[in-house]
Amino acid sequence: QLQLVESGGGLVQPGGSLRLSCAASGATLNAYAMGWFRQAPGKEREGVSCISYNGGSTNYADSVKGRFTISRDNAKNTVYLQMNSLKPEDTAVYYCARSRYMFCTSQSYDFWGQGTQVTVSS
Questions:
Q1: CA proximity to 34, closest of 65, 63, 73, 66
Q2: Based on CB atoms within 10 Å of each CB, which residue in 18, 31, 38, 82 is the most buried?
Q3: Is the sign of the CA dihedral 25, 81, 57, 51 positive or negative?
């Protein structure tokens, strides 16, 4: 059974950076697209970014374009989210998820991590 574990969250000042990791165990990720999502208190979960199975294509929510970078290391079975120029509105629990497909064209995810808290505050 696939398990996804996020790490790297924390408290950071506005303008700061964090790098989230999503480590998989129990199965390999190299045949699947992977996504990052976030959910702020009182808000619906939103998609942040997605990366195809081989890293060849990525997409981002408009709110994070130019600030966040998704990447993956299939040899390490890990996906990353580099977050720069963080803003208070980026505060949320961040989740990684495995897509049912190789590419990010379909928003269908079957395995989710437990989430990591990111708080951006001075």
A1: 73
A2: 38
A3: positive
The mean pLDDT value of the chain amounts to: 96
Cα distances (angstroms) measured from residue 97 to each of 29, 88, 113: 10, 24, 6
4-18 pLDDT, tens digit per residue, is 999 999 999 999 999
Terminus-to-terminus CA distance in the chain, angstroms?
Answer: 40
Strand partners, 74: none
Q: How far apart are CA 2 and CA 117, in angstroms?
A: 22
Quick check: 45 and 39 in contact, CB under 8 A? yes
Q: Are 112 and 5 in contact (CB under 8 A)?
A: no
Rounded CA-CA distance 24/32 in Å is 12
Cα angle, residue 110 at apex, residues 67 and 68 outer, rounded to 5°: 5
SS3 (DSSP) at 90: helix
Cβ–Cβ under 8 Å, residues 95 and 36? yes
